[in-house]
Amino acid sequence: MTLGKYELEAIAIARASLKAAGVWDPDGDLSSLVDRFIARADKQRALDEFKLAVSERCNRIPLGYILGTVEFDELPLVIGSGVFIPRPHSTVIHKWLDGIELAKGTHVLDLCAGSGAIGLAIARRRPDLKVTCVEFEEVAVNYLKRNIARLLTKNVHIKALQADIRDSEAFVRFGHQVGLIVANPPYVPRQTQLQPEWGDHHPTTAVYSGADGLDLTRQITALAITLLTPDGWLVIEHGEDQAHAIRALFERHQLTDVRTVIDRQASDTTGISVMTVGRLSNNVQT
């Protein structure tokens, strides 16, 4: 197959980069990478892989796990079995962020960050903010760190913190220093029957959260009021039928300007794109 000028230039740069990185078989790796991403040399092999992928999808393996990547808010993220697949639903957070004022250098925490989609997208949109993605599960942390390193090439910069949000000691350094906390926690009630992609193949800790689905949301809200600056924002994604309970939860924790935001454009047949936002009252004693 004949390759164009720009493809050949990219391949030459890749060969030099692989050698400089100390890869033990740069030519072999380069051949595989070219075959995977630029031009398939073996058409029969490509067809066989396609058939296997279709078979997996028919077995209801999530498409993201089959492809190994997903695009979220214009960012190419690496994902795989054991980590929650980011959904377009979460872009409701970024659309809302575009409409509020946050000072340069504001600290942002993305809790239950998974592969880092929400935090990385915030950093892409607002490189002037100091974003930290917080995740506890080991597999998800590995994908988070990989995506952080991967997106440095796109000049997207964030930090990763492996911590359990139920451990308040892990967040002492952030006490009343954070201007924005965002989270897409697991929020499905434990007994809910889901489509196989979610109920069978996603990690249960990234999907379910107690009898009413709000166990982790309660933990996050309680933690947030110890971390937010006065007038700092808390934003939590959740199920549509949980909106009233979460607004009440926010108000009990002295959050003000509480409202639920629904984005029909980011919604699909798997659910409604919905989140609740609130900000810490200036009157809360710190």
Descriptive notes:
The protein is an alpha/beta fold and 286 residues long. The protein folds into two domains: 5-59; 82-280, Vaccinia Virus protein VP39 (Rossmann fold), CATH 3.40.50.150. 37% of the residues lie in helices and 22% in strands. It has helices at 5-20, 26-37, 43-58, 63-67, 91-97, 117-125, 138-150, 196-199, 215-227, 243-252, and strands spanning 69-72, 75-78, 107-111, 130-135, 159-162, 178-183, 228-237, 255-268, 271-280. Strand 1 (69-72) and strand 2 (75-78) form a beta hairpin. Helix 1 (5-20) packs antiparallel against helix 2 and helix 5 (91-97) packs parallel to helix 6 (117-125).
CATH superfamily of the largest domain: Vaccinia Virus protein VP39
CATH architecture annotation of the largest domain: 3-Layer(aba) Sandwich
Strand tally is 9
Largest sheet: 7 strands, mixed
Strand order of the largest sheet: 5-4-3-6-7-9-8
What is the structural class?
Answer: alpha/beta
Short précis:
The chain has 286 residues and is α/β, with parallel strands linked by helices. 37% of the residues lie in helices and 22% in strands.
